[in-house]
Amino acid sequence: MRSMRTTTLRQHRARDRGQVTVEFLGMTPTILVTLVVLWQLVLVGYTFTLAGNAADEAVRAATAADPGARQGACRSAGLDKLSGAWAGGADVTCATGGGFVTADVKLAVPILFPGTVSFPFDVTGHAGAVEEEED
User: Does the global pTM surpass 0.85?
Assistant: First the structure.
């Protein structure tokens, strides 16, 4: 009786051996698509972080610069810490009014790899600070 049960169990295992491979191959596209979507979400989040940090840096430099040199200081500080992939399409604008300096940084969100094709929408970082008075 025992040898018959062992033989039947071995036959079931032999038939199931190929089933695991088929199931894994069937799930592989789903796993890959999930990984690609997660990677893209990481890129979107990282772009938001870069835009916010670039705007902070830009407004900080603009408030410390002379009023005539604010635009140049703002733009160069906003682009300074961006890598080439994000700096290429970056748009840094600064405005002054009412004793307040603002900076906006627009960055393109890359699709899968930085420096390649971008989404048709941009991510914007905004920062503001009070103008420093000269002594």
Answer: no
d(CA 12, CA 34): 33
pLDDT digits (tens, 9 = 90+) for 2-49: 565 666 666 666 666 677 778 888 889 999 999 999 999 998 899 999
Distances (CA, A) of 1 to 5, 6, 14, 37: 6, 9, 20, 54
CA-nearest of 45, 47, 63, 32 to 128 is 63
- Would you state the structure tokens that stand for residue 36, as one six-digit string? 């690609």
Closest CA to 131 of 75, 62, 77: 62
**What would the mean pLDDT of 81-96 be, rounded to a whole number?**
85
The structure tokens 């999930």 sit at 34
Q: Convert 40-78 into a string of H (helix), E (strand) and C (coil).
A: HHHHHHHHHHHHHHHHHHHHHHHHHCCHHHHHHHHHHHH
